[in-house]
């Protein structure tokens, strides 16, 4: 029967995010380094020559290539290329929660760079690198603002086909933007969201005996 054929096609199907086949996919690494026996988070400043977001603070990362083994490998490969270090020097890589943002899927990871003294940033992509003590980030309270998005259908939108027509009650959207400040650096946007998520993870169930 036709209905049984349909059921068979759906059986044991693994669901994914609807439309994700068309999404751009990126992987990012939140690098941890040890400086003078203290844990720091390493950040990049994007090259001023970059077409997109020049001069902004970010984590190393980039688009997932077809030849990459998986998302984790992309994060490691991109970090190696941008910081001029070997892939083997990036260890203890662990996944954070992945994110969906404006047609993109971002897979963040946290990992340790065990030889930060050997970092030689790629000038085509990285203007400079800097580190922030983890102890500072765990104690500072970021500032939070919101960006509101207005719904604006295109000129020939078929209002006559929907209930309510031009008076349709569109759901408004807003995005939370987080800002961290360290010396003369401003950490915001996707980088700040990943950073905040990481700080929340390492603080869950935290006890004094586990002090980092």
TrEMBL record:
Stretches assigned to the Nudix hydrolase domain: 21-157
Cofactor: Mn(2+); Mg(2+)
Keyword field contains Hydrolase: yes
Keyword annotations of the record: Hydrolase, Magnesium, Manganese, Metal-binding
Coiled-coil ranges from the UniProt annotation: none
Keyword Transmembrane helix attached: no
Entry-linked InterPro entries: CoAse, NUDIX_hydrolase-like_dom_sf, NUDIX_hydrolase_dom
Single Gene Ontology MF annotation: coenzyme A diphosphatase activity
Protein's name according to its UniProt entry: NUDIX hydrolase
């Amino acid at each position: 029967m036709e209905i049984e054929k349909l059921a068979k096609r759906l059986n044991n199907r693994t669901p994914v995010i609807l439309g994700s086949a068309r999404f751009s996919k990126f992987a990012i690494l939140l690098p941890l380094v040890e400086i003078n026996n203290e844990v720091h988070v390493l950040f990049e400043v994007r090259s001023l020559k970059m077409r997109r977001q020049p001069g902004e603070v970010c984590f190393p990362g980039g688009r997932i290539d077809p030849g990459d083994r998986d998302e984790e490998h992309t994060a490691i490969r991109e970090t190696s290329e941008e910081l001029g270090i070997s892939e083997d020097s990036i260890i203890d890589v662990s996944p954070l929660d992945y994110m969906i943002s404006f047609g993109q899927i971002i897979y963040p990871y946290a990992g340790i760079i065990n030889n930060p003294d050997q970092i030689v940033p790629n000038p085509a992509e990285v203007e400079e690198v800097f580190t922030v003590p983890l102890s500072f980030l765990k104690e500072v309270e970021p500032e939070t603002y919101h960006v509101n998005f207005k719904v604006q259908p295109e000129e020939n939108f078929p209002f006559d086909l929907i209930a309510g027509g031009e008076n349709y009650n569109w759901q408004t959207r807003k995005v939370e933007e987080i800002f961290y400040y360290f010396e003369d650096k401003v950490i915001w946007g996707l980088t700040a969201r990943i950073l905040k998520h990481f700080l929340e993870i390492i603080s869950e169930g935290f006890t004094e005996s586990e002090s980092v």
